[in-house]
Every structure is written in C-alpha cells, then in structure tokens.
Design brief:
The protein has one domain. 26% of the residues are buried. The chain is built from 5 helices and no strands. By secondary structure, the chain is mostly helical.
C-alpha cells in the first residue's frame, strides 16, 4: 500500500538524501551528481511505496543539496566508519540512532521553511 506523501514522508526522504550526500562525500570527497540524487530518491520511493509528484521530489532533492554541507559541518560525520552506524542491516536509516533523529529534525525544520 503506497504511503501518503505527507510532511513526515517528505522529511524522511530528505533525511535519506542528506545522509546519502554525506556517504558520497565520505567515500569520494565529492557530493552526488544530480542524476545520482535522482536515482537515490527513486530508491527511497520504491523502498517506501511513495509516489510524490515530480515537483515535490525535485524540490526535496534541491533541499538535500543545500542542507548536506550544513549537516556535514556540524555533525562530524566525515568518514564511512562514522556513517555506517546510521543504517540498519537492511540499508535503511536507523531512527533509534540519536544523530539520525537530529538530522531528521533538521530536515523537518527545513521543510517547514519551504
């Protein structure tokens, strides 16, 4: 059953994309290219049964690009070793990890300003 693409789903998608950007930076020293961000958003949508309108999806991708450098600067999540505990064995973000919750809160706040 597809999820309603409400504020919570938007925040979860944004959080996933921001963390994806952090992983890319830790692995390659560079941010994700646009096509990789779009692909990552598709992965999140498929895994969560979400079907946002394309404008909403693109807006969230842009927010991730803007927010990721700020999160990197304040989180200390600069290495793969630091980022690995943010995920469950299934590759989903583990919201029981406090820093994931903090990133999610920042994402939700950013969406409220949009």
């Amino acid at each position: 059953m597809p999820i309603v693409f409400d504020d919570d789903a938007r925040a979860e998608m944004l959080c996933y994309l921001v963390v994806g950007e952090l992983v890319a930076m830790a692995r390659t020293g560079d941010w994700l290219r646009t096509d990789h961000l779009v692909e990552l958003s598709c992965i999140w949508m498929h895994a969560n049964g979400a079907h946002p309108e394309w404008r909403d999806r693109i807006s969230i991708v842009r927010m991730a690009v803007d927010l990721a450098p700020d999160v990197l600067a304040t989180s200390g999540l600069r290495t793969e070793k630091a980022l690995a505990p943010l995920f469950t064995d299934g590759g989903r973000l583990d919201y029981r990890v406090p820093v994931v919750g903090e990133i999610h809160e920042r994402c939700a706040a950013r969406l409220q300003r949009a």
